[in-house]
Amino acid sequence: MENRGLEDVFRYFAFFQYAPSIEQIHTFYPKKISRAQLERLLTKEIGNKKLPYFLKSQRRVKEAAKKVNLVKNYVRLLSYIFCIQMVAVSGSIAVGNAKPNDDIDLFLVTKSGYLWTSRFIAVLLAYVMGLKRKRGVIHAPNKVCLNLFFDETDLALPKYKRNLYTAHEVLQVVPMVNKNHTYEQFMAKNNWVSSFFPNAAIPTVKKKSKKLTTHIGVIEMMLKKIQLWIMNPHRTTEIITDTQLWFLPRDMEKKLRGRL
Questions:
Q1: CB of 132 within 8 A of CB of 125?
Q2: Which domain of life is it from (predicted)?
C-alpha cells in the first residue's frame, strides 16, 4: 500500500478482525487530514486495488447489540446508585465487533471517595443477576467484565499507560450512564489521545467542573479491606491505586506490541 497512514489503520483493525467505517478511518488516521482528502485517498487506493477494504460484518454488529441489550437492566440498576457517575461499554462491544463468545467490558466512574463501595455494589449486583464472570475464566460469553473503575478526581490515564492501544480504547468508549457530564470530563482529561490521532473529535465539557477532593469514609475503608483480602491471594496483573482500579485479564497492549 502506498499510503503508510492507511496501512497503519488497517493493520491495527485487522488484528481485531474488524472493518472500520469511513468515520473510524478518519478518526484513527495518524496525521491531520480533512474528510474530503481522506475520501480521495481511499478512492485512489481502492481504485488501485491496494486497499484491503471490506464491509463491516452485520452479524457482529447484531451480536454486539444483543449483548448490550443483555446488560441494559443491570446498567439501569447501576444508574440508580448514587455513587456511580458513569457506566460505559468498551472493547469489541463498543465498536460493534462482537463475537458470540465475547464478554461485555464495562468501565465505571465513581463519586469521589466511593471507588471500592461502587465496585462492591457492581460486583454483588452482577452476581445476583447471573452476570458475574468466574475468577480466572478468560472467555465468559455474555458475562460482564468490570475491568475499570476510576474515581472522578482522577480521570486521566497514567502516563505509563498512554499508548496506541489505550488511545483507541479511550476514543471507542460508549457511555450508557453519564451523570454530570462525566463522560465529557473523562475525554477532556484524556485529550492526549490527539497526539496519536489528530483528527479525533474530543467532546467538550459542557459544565465547568468543580475542584473535587477525596474523603474516605469508614464504610469505604471497610469494603476496600474486605475486597483486597479476597483479591490478594489471586493477584496477577491488576493495577490498584487509591483512585483507579484496572482489572484486565488479557494483556492486549503486549500482544499488539508484538504484532504491529
A1: no
A2: Bacteria
Residue-wise over 216-247: b if at least 16 C-beta within 10 A, else e? Answer: eeeebeebbeebeeeeeeeeeeeebeebbbbb
Q: HSE (CB half, 13 Å, CA atoms) of 189?
A: 18
Give bridge partners of residue 87 from the DSSP assignment.
Answer: 108, 177
pLDDT tens-digit map of 173-200 = 999 999 999 999 999 999 999 999 999 9
Q: How many CB atoms lie within 10 A of CB 61?
A: 14
Domain that holds residue 88: 59-259
Whole-number Å distance between alpha carbons of 142 and 242: 30
pLDDT, tens digit (0-9, with 9 covering 90-100), for 211-256:
666 667 999 999 999 999 999 988 888 999 999 999 976 666 766 7
Q: Say yes or no: 42 and 118 in one domain.
A: no
Query: Domain for residue 239, yes or no?
Result: yes
Contacts for 48 with CB less than 8 Å, ≥ 6 apart: 2
The CA distance from 166 to 156, in Å, is 11
Grid cell, residue 51, equals 486497499
Mean pLDDT calculated for residue range 79-95: 96
Same domain, 70 and 43: no
Q: CA 251 → CA 44, 135, 185, distances in Å?
A: 36, 16, 27
Task: Give the CA count within 13 Å in the CB-facing half-sphere of 92.
Answer: 27
